[in-house]
Design goal:
The chain is mainly alpha-helical and 127 residues long. The protein is built from four helices and two strands; from the N terminus they run H-H-H-E-E-H. The N and C termini lie far apart (63 Å).
Amino acid sequence: ASPRSSFDNLVYSPPKYIINTIKNQPERQRWEAANVVQLTGAEIRQVESDMLELAILTGAKVEVDQSGNVLYTFPMQLERILIQKWIRHRVDTAMAKILPALAYIYRASFGLMLISSIAVVYVALIV
């Protein structure tokens, strides 16, 4: 799957309904959980939790208004940020698997070069 269609390899996979709701209403700058509930029909507790997780993941601005409502201001490049996070997670995962092998190869080649250089010096002293 391409990064644009799948965020399932992230540690947290943001719900599509919130992303689509925010993306489909670009004129709205600030979001409350109640706005998303009104547009999607999802449960308020789940929406609050998902919006907080999405705000943490994307670096959204979170405010509390005078009446106690939590307002989220998501970045305009929401999908781009999520794709970058997805790619970063994939690279980090791959590097975590590759680095131990590279370190072993480096140590082995260093040892091999050390032994061969000692052998060259030994042969040079004998000849």
